[in-house]
Amino acid sequence: MTETTAAAAASQPIVLTRKDFISDQEVRWCPGCGDYSILAQTQRVMPDFGYPRENIVFISGIGCSGRLPYYMNTFGFHSIHGRAPTLATGLKLARPDLMVWVITGDGDALSIGGNHVLHAMRRNVDIKLVMFNNRIYGLTKGQASPTSELGKHTKSSPDGTVDQPIVPLSVALAAEATFVARTVDTYTEHIQETLDAAGRHKGSVFVEVLQNCNIFNDGAWREFTEREVRDDRMLKLRHGEPMIFGAAADKGIRIVGLRPEVVTLGNGVSEADLTVHDESDDALA
Amino acid sequence: MTTETDQHISPPVLELERVTIRFAGDSGDGMQVTGSQFTRTAAVFGNDIATLPDFPAEIRAPAGSLAGVSGFQISFSSSEIHTPGDSPDVLVAMNPAALRANLGDVPAGGAIVVNEDAFSPQNVAKAGYAANPLTDGSLSDYNVFEIPVGTLNARALEGLEMTAKQVDLTKNFFALGVMFWLFERSMQPTMDWIESKFSSRPIILEANLRALKAGYAFGETTEIFHNSFRVKPARLAPGTYRNVNGNEAAALGFVAAAKLARRDLVYGSYPITPASEILHQLSTYKHYGVRTFQAEDEIAAIGAAIGAAFGGALGLTASSGPGIALKSEAMGLAVMVELPLVVVDVQRGGPSTGLPTKTEQSDLLQVMFGRNGDAPMPVVAPATPAECFEMAIEASRLALKYMTPVTYLSDAYLANGSEPWRVPELEDLPDISVPNHTDPATFRSYARDPVTLARPWAVPGTPGLEHRIGGLEKADVIGTVSYDADNHQRMTDLRARKVAGIADDIPELRVAGPERGDLLILGWGSTYGSLRTATERLQRQGHAVAHAHLRHLNPFPRNTGEVLSAYRRVLIPEINNGQLRLLIRARYLVDAIGLDRVRGKPFAVPEVESAARLLLDREDA
């Protein structure tokens, strides 16, 4: 069966649209949740991969992110807390012909399921893990998560958290993931680009999506995503292009010795001085 | 040329029906290898055999200490046997600690072969003896044969470029050689094994061969033994036999099951004693469509098996009690999503880390009830090492036919114990294949087969069957998430009925002995041999006693209640604190009496016999 479906897929290009990936289930996230945008972009990029719907599987754990498979008109498995990468690994082992996505959150992936993420990444199993990071436990109504900022006041930390937050991408890189990226829920175009590249990568994928929880952690990434600051606080990395950012595209990053520094273009600093992004160089990651 | 050997007149040969030998020494002395080699040789010769390896949890406890004593018992016979014997006829003790740890099991008049070189004052003290037992008269009830194994062996190896330590490591083969002579066994199977095992190390190869032959020649030429012994081959049903332990048989059984189901086998596992050997075995069967995955932990192991089952493979995971505890949540998930999966629990002494290398039957209630919610799972339990094969097929059959996770309860005694196994003919094995659902028009993810109540298996890759499953309660038939009260009641009842209905699809409970009588001895799992032997002895004494052994523990065979009510008393011996008894009493309101022992060992036949007699006497009074 495996070979015939693959052959059929190769001979007949499948033309699907975003609508083909919308399931009949009513979406039940809180109004204004960042998950809506991520879901919409996910449905939008799915047709690009040329896989028939029945050969795509979404596997999730527990948390708000865990509901995403219900809304995708593909095969789906809403498993148990933290364990989605294990089911995905077993499924891929049995069925290498399938495209397997893991949808997870900061608590699911980095707390209860931390060990599974490490090992799924280092094994370089061809599964695409997308982690929604809202820095809070939303489904359980507002406890600190492993990515909550130091000192954060939550229901479970009324005097502020005392532990350092995890930097998810550092974990993914340390675990030897072969595709590591970060995007933001409100940057629809960038989510699409990122998911598209993730879908085409053969190997372990770790995508972090900075996501707002407007009920329990509104403004989770305010310092990067607010309209007034975002252009000056975010740099879109593009392979082969110099690292330029800023509302006026007048800032950049260059590496002096072993340290990166932010510079303003002009006054003797030109584009040629900036570091060029190389997606295959993990020293730049 | 005439040598002393040729002139020697062989001592007479005594014919015996059955002999039990226990090899005991330091855990570094190679006792498991020695025992296994004797087992192979006896099996090749055609004896019925049963073995009991008994080793410490420490890989190398301090040399000469009681904690480091490792043993291997083999019973071989010219007739059918059920147990590896309660008390050894011959104890081979490589040091004082091995003697002290095992002497209590040797009956008066039994033979003890000791390595007298090891009885230095230091070793004697380390074993906790106040005086050397070889010289203080404390062994006068036994036939003691003192052989300077170390010295003689070192002499046989003279001229080989080896360190004293390397030489010492071969002395187990000297002891084995002595035993081969004593019981008229050919050295050839072991010589072949040595030659293949050490082919890249010619000196070690030569040393082990010399040690083995020197031991054999020692037996033949010295007058230390008055007889040698003969145990004729057993009359087993014709067929091809091989020696298997329970873990090997289970591994072969699951490979066969996957073939019979025409599915790939995906095995997720994390190393744990005494289940790891299943992983070792299965990882060599890649060419049979077996995929093994050494996961990062127990949870990942079962998660992968569930994921594989979702993809259409036969999912399998194995562990021991502590690992099963970790898998519990995922077992509940498998119950909820109703996917076929087999969870093997090779039980060991608990709770917690407990006695990792010793046997116990104390996970029965854990696998019956150890999940949140009402989460019924079928439970099967093989009774002998060879039966581990067929019960693997049975567990897989139930999992596939009823779309349910199934627990398979083995234990350390079955896992490590071995017996001859008649290799079955493929056409004698059942077809256990089930179809995938493929028709989108009739597809409802939680519709049920009217007879089995199984839901359809709709695997990814099937056009038009895109659907979502998960741990949340599902609406009956349509399979979407449902929090409806009536629906949850209905689904809980359906899950229970599905598992209970398996009772109509499994063999009825059979008894060995009279169909009614004074006493039924009811057991399950690895106690089979002791219970059957004790029952036979009681029957020979004229008692109306029968033995029944459960292979299916959930659901119970449908005639179980009837069988129980046909006897005036019911005795349930278990290697736990009365777990089956609790289930039987609750389910059938029978005043069953327990014989509960948790000593890390199988029952000795007389233990069962005397507990039974106590009940029978009470009846008479």
Features:
heterodimer, A: 285 residues, alpha/beta, Rossmann fold, 2 domains, six-stranded parallel β-sheet, three-stranded antiparallel β-sheet, 11 strands, 28% helix, globular, B: 621 residues, Pyruvate-ferredoxin Oxidoreductase, domain 3, 4 domains, six-stranded mixed β-sheet, 23 strands, 37% helix, disordered N terminus
First-last Cα distance of chain A: 40 Å
Distance between the ends of chain B: 74 Å
Order of helices and strands of chain A: HHEEHEHHEEEHEHEHHEEE
- Identify the CATH architecture of the largest domain in chain B: 3-Layer(aba) Sandwich
Estimate the global geometry of chain A from the Cα principal axes: globular
Strand content of chain A: 15-25%
Beta-sheet strand percentage of chain B? 15-25%
Compute the CA-based radius of gyration of chain B.
27 Å
- CATH superfamily assignment of the largest domain in chain A? Thiamin diphosphate (ThDP)-binding fold, Pyr/PP domains
Number of strands of chain A: 11
| Overall pLDDT of chain B | 93
> What is the chains' assembly state?
heterodimer
The CATH topology of the largest domain in chain B corresponds to Pyruvate-ferredoxin Oxidoreductase, domain 3
Label the structural class of chain B. alpha/beta
CATH architecture of the largest domain in chain A: 3-Layer(aba) Sandwich
Largest interface: A-B, 42 and 44 residues
Mean pLDDT of chain A: 93
Total number of distinct structural domains of chain A: 2
Description:
- The complex is a heterodimer of chains A (285) and B (621).
- By secondary structure, chain A is α/β, with parallel strands linked by helices.
- Chain A has 2 domains: 2-233, Rossmann fold (3-Layer(aba) Sandwich); 235-285, no CATH class.
- Chain A contains 9 helices and 11 strands.
- In chain A, the strands form 3 sheets. Chain A has a 6-stranded parallel sheet, sandwiched between helices.
- In chain A, strand 10 and strand 11 (259-264) form a beta hairpin.
- Chain A is globular, with a radius of gyration of 20 Å.
- The N and C termini of chain A lie far apart (40 Å).
- With 621 residues, chain B is an alpha/beta fold.
- Chain B has 4 domains: 10-231, Pyruvate-ferredoxin oxidoreductase, PFOR, domain III (Pyruvate-ferredoxin Oxidoreductase, domain 3), CATH 3.40.920.10; 242-428, Thiamin diphosphate (ThDP)-binding fold, Pyr/PP domains (Rossmann fold, 3-Layer(aba) Sandwich); 440-505, no CATH class; 511-620, Rossmann fold.
- Chain B contains 21 helices and 23 strands.
- In chain B, the strands form 5 sheets. A 7-stranded mixed sheet of chain B has the order 11-10-12-13-15-14-21, sandwiched between helices. In chain B, strands 3-4-2-5-6-7 form a 6-stranded mixed sheet, with helices on both faces.
- In chain B, strand 5, helix 3 (96-102) and strand 6 form a beta-alpha-beta unit.
- In chain B, helix 2 packs parallel to helix 7 (171-182), helix 7 (171-182) packs parallel to helix 9 (202-221) and helix 8 runs antiparallel to helix 9.
- Chain B is globular, with a radius of gyration of 27 Å.
- Residues 1-8 of chain B have low confidence and may be disordered.
- At the A-B interface, strand 1, strand 2, helix 3 and helix 5 of A face helix 12, helix 13 and strand 17 of B.
